[in-house]
Each structure stands twice: as structure tokens, then as C-alpha cells.
Amino acid sequence: MTSAGSPNPAPRRQPPGAERILLMSSNGAGMGHLTRLLAYAAHLPAEVEPYVLSLSQAVPVVAQFGYRYEYLPSHGALGMTSALWQPLFQERLIETVGRVRPRVVVFDGTHPYRGIDAAREVHPGVRWVWSRRGMWKPGLNGDQLAKSAWFDEVIEPGDMAAEADKGASATAPAYRVGPVTLTDREDLLPRAEARAALGLPAEGRIGLISLGAGNINDTSRDIGAAAAALRAAGCAVAVTDVAIAESAHASDVHLVRAYPLARCYAAFDLVVAATGYNSFHEVLRLGVPAILIPNAGTSLDDQAARATYAAQRGWALAPEAGGLDDAVRTMLSYGADMAAAAQHADPGNGARAAAERLLAVAVGDVEGGRV
């Protein structure tokens, strides 16, 4: 097992007296909500200061971008019920908005917390935006759409699989932009530089497994099956989870720890990834040959619909159980063509349009914006 990190993006410096936008992320699985907000922040002008308030324990990564941040523990992190936690959240949010004094508060999540409405009443001069990704599982979460009334604007980051979106938010009013990723094509490191940054061998094929936690030695499960398929095809294996790497006890398993890892995707010959919003759009937008394995355990995100749609369009493979060996061989032979097809279908990064919309909200110029 080997491990290494990658160079951090250059920190951002704010001018004195900059206007602020407060970016608040919910505590979803992974880092998707926080990463999407950082994508918006990257496209804000220098005279606007992003300030992050997050329920994610991963929020310290924000410091490498030069932004100030605060951690607001979720009810799960505190071991509390939602009912007991909600007044604490409300009090903290009201205090933070009063102290930070943003022009706009942006909440990224699929379930706006009770307390946002109260904070809006206490701070009537602040504008509020809901960053609400789509692809909800059909029949779920529709009651949350009524909370759009708490916000001055709803921005929906686009989805390359939007044609397959059958969820409640698909037809709800929103200002829709292109798919949003923090990393763009021009941010990619060249292959040799990316491998050096991650401490990976300069030669040979390497496949990245990005499926969350699991046991690499259990070939009956996705991670173990993916590792076995990569090895059978002559590929070394890279993983992002420390426990997985430590359990491997093998020199051809490499731990890669970097944020954002997508900057180093050229280091890999293919990626075996789940189909959450960020990982799905990073591999497709950045031209990475990808095998997609949806996480069936998500509460709301319709990862299966994303994976199926991408496979139908010829952008990636989404093999059935037991089909990973064939999928890896196919991807090593034809993956570049499939990745190119995905990039051809990419409408471009929607982060800039989202940031521009936030600026419009800040000055009240959002008449007739939702479609």
C-alpha cells in the first residue's frame, strides 16, 4: 500500500470590505453539497467573499481555497434527535447571519431545515437561495418543494442524465444551469504530473475504485469484485479509503488522498465509481473512462437512473452483478471513445452561470427567473 496527496489549489485572497455570500451545506453522504458550493465560489468575482457554514465534518478542506468557514454539527454528529437539534440550528444560523452579514445565503441540500424560515424573518434584508440538485427517486421528498417559498431563488445544477429524471423536482420551478463541477477540463494535471503528485508509479495501468467504504478482499461485494477485475486485466488498484487500502496488504494497491482528486484523474486508465452527482459529472465532463456502480442505499439520489442513462448513451458502462471482468476489459479497449462521447455531450460547467445568478439575486435582479 502506498499513499500520497496532491498539490492544493492556490488560496483566494479577498480585498478589504468585500461583500459576502454565505454558503451553507447540509450533511449529506460524502462531500457533494460542500463541493458544489465551492464550485460556485470559484466563479464569484474577487470583490465578493465566500463564507462557508457547513454541517459536514469535512469542512476544513475549505481553508485550502482561502475561504473562511465554520462547522455547525448536525444532529447525528451531536447524538441528538432532530427535534432537540432544530432550535440549536436555528439559533446558530440566526447568530451567524447577523455576525457575517452576507448579502445572500445559499443553502445546498434537498431538505431545507426548519429554522431557515425563522432566520429569514429575523434578517429580512438578506436574500436566500436554495441550490437544489435533481434526480430524486420517484415518489419521494415532494413535500419539501413547498419550502421553495422560503427562498428568493431556487437554482438547479443541471444533470447530464436529466432526461431520465422522474423525481418530484423535475418539473418544479427553478433557475436551471448546466452540470456543476468544481474541477474543469483546464484544471486537469497532465498524466505524469498527476501520478507524481499522488505518489503513483509512472508506468503501467492503474484503475481507481471510488465506491466508498468496503472490503477489498471480499470479491462478492462491489469493491472487492472491482479490485479483482482490475488485477485480472493487469491493472494496479488505487483506492480513496484508508481502511480499504490497509486491509489489502498488497503492493499493487495505492491509497490516494487528495481534494479535489478530480484534478488528478489523468493518472488513471479508468475509474470504477458510484453515480452520485459529483462523481458522475466529474468522470463524464473530464473525459475519464468510467464503469458506474450506483449506490442503491441512497435515501433520495436516483443513482441507478444516472448509471443506466449514461450506459444507454454510450458514455460509460454500468454492468450487472458479475459483469465487472468484461466491463474492465471493454473499457480498457474502448473507454477513450466512450469518454470522448460523454465530453461531446457535455453542455459545459454550470458553475459560472450559477455564480452569476447569485450575484443577480444579491442586487434583486431575478424577476421571472424560475422556469
TrEMBL record:
Keywords per UniProt: Transferase
Domain (Glycosyl transferase family 28 C-terminal): residue spans on this chain: 262-317
UniProt cross-references to Pfam families, sorted A to Z: Glyco_tran_28_C
Keyword presence, Transferase: yes
Chain segments annotated as coiled-coil in the UniProt record: none
UniProt key word Signal: no
InterPro entries in the cross-refs: Glyco_trans_28_C (IPR007235)
Protein name: UDP-N-acetylglucosamine:LPS N-acetylglucosamine transferase
Lineage: Bacteria, Bacillati, Actinomycetota, Actinomycetes, Micrococcales
